[in-house]
Write a structure and sequence with these properties.
By secondary structure, the chain is of the alpha+beta class. It contains 6 helices and 5 strands. The structure holds zinc ion (2 copies). Residues 84, 95-97, 102, 104, 117 line the site of one zinc ion (ZN).
Amino acid sequence: MRQGNKASPARALERALHRLEDLCRERGQRLTRPRRAVLAKLLTAGRALSAYELLDLLRPEDGKSTAASVYRTLDFLMALGIVHRLESTRSFVLCEHPGGPHWVQFLICRRCGQVVEAEDERIAAATERLGQRLGFALDQRIVELTGVCEGCRGSAARH
Ligand SMILES: [Zn+2]
Ligand SMILES: [Zn+2]
């Protein structure tokens, strides 16, 4: 998730959490405290986190957190379409436009870990056609692209 918000980070966090809370309610689900805590960590990090990074962040606040409970929470949030799993880095990132199932492309910076979620319909359509051509019924069409982001390329150029 990009951090373009210049407002107070705490207020921006509360607003983002409220939005996600509404989204859960619309689906008849509750944003319980552990779920809220995971979302808050992902929002604050502004990048993808592994389950164990999340666990390290959660433990000081909730000693009852375990890897299993973190994975359960992440499964729930993924089923709601609020969180995506990045296969290439085995980490989890907040969806930039949660709402429904969508086949997106992730651009992942391997220096700073920044993740940008893009939704290019041509790529989504191309993957569908590719599957058809090769006789595959695709159930996962998310594309992960790795490289170096603009910010990291800029800082490398200055050195
Ligand atoms: Zn998404
Ligand atoms: Zn970067």
